Amino acid sequence: FDATATVFRIERVLPEDILVASIDPASGRLDVEVSPHQFGPVRIMIGATNAAGATSYQIARIDVFPSVVFVDPAATGLATGLRWDDAFPNLQDALRIPHIVGIPMEIRVAEGLHRPGTVEDGEEATFIIPGDTHLFGGFAGNETTRDGRDPQARPTILSGDLPAMISIPMKRGKSPTLPTSAESTH
What we know:
- The chain has one helix and twelve strands.
- The protein is mainly beta.
- The strands form five sheets. The chain has a three-stranded antiparallel β-sheet with strand order 1-4-5, with no helix packed on it.
- It is elongated, with a radius of gyration of 24 Å.
């Protein structure tokens, strides 16, 4: 901006529903409140006017990322991970976010057995948890805070036993593929 700018204002926010932004008209300080159900790039057009009435514009780009994501295989929503209804169906999807954005993150995982993939996934079938990522289990999938979890009543299990796919020959040359469990029985 022009160093003589005395009045600042927000001209436009894209996407429009992702945040509430306000600017101090005298200092140009920008305050942003992000919707908890959105993330990605946000662009804010800011106008600055100097004492002579000349206006200049700049675009501020803010990359917005969630600090908490949700995993629940029973979720039926959009699979964005941004709330329980739209939780990621598998933990692998949630673990990709901290790898991509490189920020500390909390992942809340619903009760049940979670596997990193199938035998066909090979070495890719592993849970890699970044150092600044915190995993919490014991959720039913409707809690509003981390304190609502109960790991004793709702165990969350991360298993390395991968389900295999086997072929069973059938008459007329057809061979359907059926999932089986590779879990240990002891």
